[in-house]
Amino acid sequence: MSTIIYIVIVLIVSCILVCIFSKSRSASGRPIFAESNFEPHPNDKAILVNGPIYSNVKDACYDFCDMYNVDDYVVLIKLIRIDPETTLLLFPYEIDFLHFVYLVNHLQTPTNQQYHATVTGWLTTRGSDKWINARTANKRAMLTSGQQENDQDRVYFITMDGIAYQFTLSQNIALETNNSPITYTQAEINIENYEVRRGELIAFRPTE
Questions:
Q1: CA–CA gap between residue 150 and residue 135 (Å, rounded)
Q2: CA pair distance 17, 19, nearest whole angstrom
Q3: What's the CA angle centered on 41, arms 106 and 26, to 5 degrees?
Q4: How far apart are alpha carbons 45 and 97 in whole angstroms?
Q5: What is the pLDDT of residue 197?
Q6: Of 33, 75, 89, 142, which has the fewest CB atoms closer than 10 Å, so is most exposed?
Q7: Range name among 4-8, 49-53, 151-155 with the lowest pLDDT average
């Protein structure tokens, strides 16, 4: 086989591989999204948003996913409309603790809109989670974000047995506190009843 023919074959194969790779990624650089590509990961993480209408919460989730799902899908949110001013967020494909904390904070003060909301998250902690130590691992916990303007950088965390922390996100620190502004409470709805609901899966904002 002559050198020229060999070079032509190599170029053709290279072009085919480039085309295949290009088609496997969206215009944004993310892989093309297909829910079937993700394995469900049972977990008890949930966020309840009271106040804003469903479409406003959905927009806030789109913004959050667009910020973090840049090269891959690290945040997939299942949205369920409970009533006109109550939205439940579940995570059938899991979400790591740090993104969960950031999302609680983001939903309180979303980037591109203003609304009044009460945002509360629940989960069972793991020893591998950021900011979680031996005293707080493997415990049911509640999180909520600061609602005052000078408190928007903070997320408050408390375990079921009353161990409380203040997370300051911009400084990447967690401080234990004996004067927590929150107390642990159960969700006013039975979250388990909604896990079988189909809901709406949010991964990125669709282009029009």
A1: 29
A2: 5
A3: 65
A4: 9
A5: 87
A6: 33
A7: 4-8
The whole model's pTM is what? 0.85
Which tokens is 109 given? 């003060």
Q: Which positions ≥6 away from 163 have C-beta within 8 Å?
A: 135, 136, 139, 176
Q: Which two tokens stand for residue 20?
A: 């295949």
Q: The tokens of 51 are what?
A: 């106040």
204 SS3 class: coil
- State the pLDDT confidence band at 1, using cuts at 50, 70 and 90: low
Find all residues with CB under 8 Å of 150, minimum gap 6, and list them: none
Residue 127 neighbours by CB distance under 10 Å = 10
SS3 state of residue 165? strand
Contacts of 6 (CB under 8 A, 6+ apart): none
- Mean pLDDT calculated for residue range 90-103: 97
Residue range 179-184: mean pLDDT, rounded: 93
